Amino acid sequence: MVAIQILEQVVNGLLAGAYYLLIALGLSLIFSLGGLVNLAHGAFYALGAYFAVKLADHIGYAGAFIASPVAVALIGLVIERYLFRRFYREDPALGLLLTFGLAMVAEQALRWIFGAAPIPFSIPPALTGQLLVGDFIYSRYRLAMLVVAVIAVGGLWYLLRRTPFGRVVRAGVQNPDMVAALGISLAPYMASVVGLAVGLAALAGVLMAAITGVHPAMGADILTASFVVVVIGGLGSFWGVVLAALIVGVVRGLTVYFFPPAAEASMYLLMVLVLLFRPRGLFGERIQRFE
Amino acid sequence: MNRSLVSRRRRRVLQGAGAATALGALGFPAIVRSQADAIRFGHLTPRTGFLGPLGEYAVMGVTLAVEEINAAGGIMGRKIELIAEDSVNPQTASTKAERLIERDKVAAIIGEISSASGLAIAQVAQRNRIIFFNTGCNSDELRGKACNRFMFHTEAANTMYVYAAGTAHLRDGMVKGKKWYSLTADYAFGHDLLKAAKRFMLANGAEFVGDDLVPTDAADFSAYLLKIRNAKPDVVVSNLAGAQITNFMKQYVEYGLPYPVAGFAFDTAVAWGAGKANLIGIWPLVWSHQVKTPSAQKFVDAFTKKYGKPPDNQAWGDYLSTKHLAQAMAEIKSTDSAKVAEHLEKGAKFDVLKTREGYYRNWDHQLMQEMYTIRFLPAAEIKNQWDIFTTSPPVPAANQSLEVIAPTREDNNCTMPA
Q1: Using the beta-carbon criterion (under 8 Å), do B278 and A5 form an inter-chain contact?
Q2: SS3 breakdown of chain A: % helix, strand, coil, rounded to 5?
Q3: Which residues of chain A are within 8 Å of residue B254 when distances are taken between CB atoms?
Q4: A38 versus B25: which is more confidently predicted?
């Protein structure tokens, strides 16, 4: 009986890990290519949630599901063009300051416009209900979330591994100067990567809006966990981040089962352990310019 | 060329900033002099983080009260000047309370929601002998072990919430011989509430089958919900706080668990933010906008006119405390904290926007007042986004003393340090 309950938590943890994944992958991409630690990533997640709630009133849930990430990605492109771009080659501390400031401005702007109180939003009626598999219970909505996350992650993997676009991006991660010497300008690639990463964060925001409170600080809450996932997974490694997200989900679920007060702290302990034995993270690659 | 231009411009910016600072320093005493006549109230409450949604209502409440008092001529002809800040966490709350008292010379501090930060402010206020009105911290401990001469509680204590909700649960047959599973906010408030809830349960024959502490930043409750489902309780009890309640409610409905939900602490703002498809259960409340007394409706009307939405229970707490403080100062014709405390301890009566008048009990400074429970309406019966629940008649009943719901000396003794 206990074994089944533990197994149930493990499976649920694997599902839960997918929530961090959409955000963590974007963070990892922006850092690997631009060397920018994007502390404003959580703000784009919150923005995605707010846009979804407001757009759903006019164009329905399905419309908002598409429109919100696209709108946020466009905002991301503008911010990349006028702010991020100036900081790729600067001292990383400056980029940290910029994105930290941006995150605060975004959170306070949301508070100004929509108020600090959470705004109501629910699961669309078509996706409510549960699925019983033997003794296990799954929320239909979370299964749908999982499908969306798998498609998004799969699509990203295909883009990075199987297309000319992805080849330039990967080369840019390893050796931007060589890419430049070959006559390829990384600027448009960087802009696309930021747009993509920010859009994924917004997509996560849209998905979570139905099951958690939509409030201005929601981005700050999830950002730290996503950073932990990136650090555990290792920089520059796609599958490292995927694996780390799943492990963090499982560890958190098991901690809730055995010792709930430590549920949120468990991932930090895990990070410390991983870094002790693998300072570059689980699958971290050796990237010359970050050493 | 270009480079030197930039640096010159940058230098000019620096000089400008320097000049502005100098001007500011010169101008500052003038501002202070012009308002020397005003009485300053300091307001501290969390405006960010998981209690931020409630803090926003608190600020709206205190702002409205100060406006109304000033419009009516102030206190003894002197206007109130409000200095309101985000208390953030216990460390920051303590520093800011210190600064409000020493630099801004406030006559009193009002506010707070987090019981941990409330304790920090209370210690600073006590040391400086300045009145602190607690408008949102529920912990019994603040009225008991941590009580002091200068702290008064407009917010109800955990025991009062438990009694109000517990009475409804007893009536519905959800206590005696029933198995309870509780989720509790993992900080000072939650631990204290759990203690009060356990005392009530043991006295009334319920049994605990599970009891999980939940970190305040938890967003995903699925792992907890699976545990609850496996424990098969008769009742699920929420001792959660702030944004936790929104997350819990949404996900409890998402997983469709069949067990009735009972809560021992609640705030209207988090229910309004959950969405009408996500609300179930019976919850206690210190006040709601549905209380139909004339003064309550006057407050609801003024608040709605100013902010475009009705007040929640937190707005009530900060509005009421400010009014009580101003009334007490006007009655004794003094802003001296020691004299205000003495006046309140003598049992001065106050309108609390409910059926009966209230008073601050002399031995623990808790405002004696009625409580309510709310029950959520089925989605089909909801007419607007605010009236998503119905409010019960006041607890205790009209023929009972207000003290029956409050903590007793035996359970929560307070010995005021001199």
Answers
A1: no
A2: 75, 5, 20
A3: 123, 128, 139, 141-142, 211
A4: A38
